[in-house]
Amino acid sequence: MGPHDHLTRAEVLALLPTSPSWPSRDSKADRDRGHMRLLNAAKLLDWLADHPGDGWQERWRAADADSGKEVVLAAVLGDDQSESQRNGLVAGLNCLMMSRIVLPGYAFLRGYKALRLFKDVQQTFPDGDLDTMRDHGAGLGMTPRHVDEGLRLVSAMVLHTGRDLHELTAEDIFHVRALGRRLRGEAFIGTHTAWELLRGVGVIQSKETLKDALRFGQRPTAELVDSYNIQSTGIRNVLVRYLDERRPGVDYGSFRGLVRELVGVFWADIEAHHPGIDTLRLPDEVVDGWKQRLVTYVHSKSGEVKERRGRIAVMMRVRGFYLDIQEWAHEDPFWAQWAVPSPITRGDGAGNHKIYKQTTARMHQRVRERLPHLPLLVQTAERVHREAATLLEAARATSLNGIFEYEGTSYVRELLKVNQVPSRLDHGSPHVYIRPVGATGRRINQSLVEDDAFWSWALIETLRHTGVRAEELTELTHLALVSYRLPETGEVVPLLQIVPSKSNEERLLLVSPELASVLATIIKRLRDANGGKIPLVARYDSHERVTGPLLPHLFQRRPYWQPQVMSEAAVKHRLDRTLEATGLRDQAGQPLTYTPHDFRRMFATEAVTGGLPVHIAARILGHKTLTTTQAYLNPRELHQKGEKLQVAWSRGETEGVHSLYELAS
């Protein structure tokens, strides 16, 4: 509730004229406006007074006023509403909200669209804070439109909470973001901007962006285990201690997988079907029932029952859990009371080789289905980007509100409006907006269309020429480009440094002329868009749940005002968008899909069939054993052409390499 929630009707009406946004009394017109505001505020108070509640805020809720402005107007004015009556009542309602008699909900304010109200709120900010926020936003690269979106949300927070600007907290941002995601599936427009603006005036004392502040980071073992609500305290403590022992030897992503399988898939399922069990010594019928349930699982999103392909791996994890405890019991008395025979026998893993062969066969089938279509995918990515870039250039060459033609279609170039005010166009926006002439749909942000098309092309080209993992792709930086002088000939060749990831081993890849051209194009694009420099951006590792240092990442983009390193999900999304444009279908008639790892398998197959020895391919791919590399390869397509390494350096294909040398320096 607001600070004036329990004032009487007369006290409220006496308070309203003290608001900073109240009309002056210098002229009769201003005095008349003030008088009309009081009359309309009185109407609203009388309407609220007819509803139950201890205070104005409870009456506001009882009247269901948060359902929207139209609900309030209809209740007070009835069906016969003139424009002047509506405007007058809105002015009276503004007064009640500005004076914090009622605190409207965020959903109400989103639909209210009273821009004058938000401007009035901003005039109550401490001296200089509004200008400071605007300057801070501009310094971060925000356009006036982005700044205004953030300021509107800050104003809404002031109105909703009933607090002054410097009384707002980070929790208020977290709350409004959570509410937006619950109501519309995503945060309200301006949420991230509002966070930055509040940081700019010291309201939020944090050096992190909102995205960073929302990340949980690596969680304690006990917290991960407790998320499964294990009922037996003894078993819960054993699991926590065991997992703490195992944690230092694995990466965080693998550790979470271990927790999920031991705690969630194994013990939580045992407890769900056998409440009260508190011993690791499981009867045969309990173990047999669990093994049967392990065969399938229910998909979390679709609810569909599916076969669990990794069930034997889960059983081997459980077996390892029991065997580790047996071994540790010889050295630590704690484990002695929990050392019991493993319910999973060596024979339970007998089918592992069969599952491995089935998995390998599926990988080979994916390569057979996708490798023949790779040229079409590459051509489509090039064509889509070329068309998007040509359309963007045509739009840029056209004046505002001008009409131009492309491929037989007429377009008009437009600008976004700031606050939907026709007289306030977002001239600071770096984006180019177009709309087909005569179309009534949403305008097209052709800058983003071209940007998406470019990065889709760059991703596909880099993946197919390097065979790197998706995580390794997003980790590539300008610093990863190094050179090496061949001692025999003195020739300098470019190399691409792949930082340690899954295998925790660093490796170097020879940069082919084609890859050199792609990397040079990426570097030039980033420099051209950022004043000759590649921005330093921190990358968030979603597997390790940590944010890395500021580095000149190559696969970064600026969709709005914040440069961001692409996530692995964004990589997959851009692949899917390009595949849609190809129209490719699988044997079942469904859209053909590619994953980044499919490019890795195709790279390995093409390299070995082209004459590259398997052991060298394993080093290039970062595999520790030849077995892993051999599983990637399709025996039907492997025709070794000898043990001689064939390097595809063509005298006529060195232009990309020279460009890369110039830009890498």
UniProtKB/TrEMBL annotation:
Pfam families given in the database record: Phage_integrase (PF00589)
InterPro entries: DNA_brk_join_enz, Integrase-like_cat_sf, Integrase_catalytic, Tyrosine_recombinase_XerCD
GO molecular function: DNA binding
Keywords: DNA recombination
Domain Tyr recombinase: from-to ranges: 434-645
Protein's name according to its UniProt entry: Site-specific integrase
One annotated GO biological process: DNA recombination
UniProt superkingdom: Bacteria
Database matches in Gene3D superfamilies: Intergrase catalytic core (1.10.443.10)
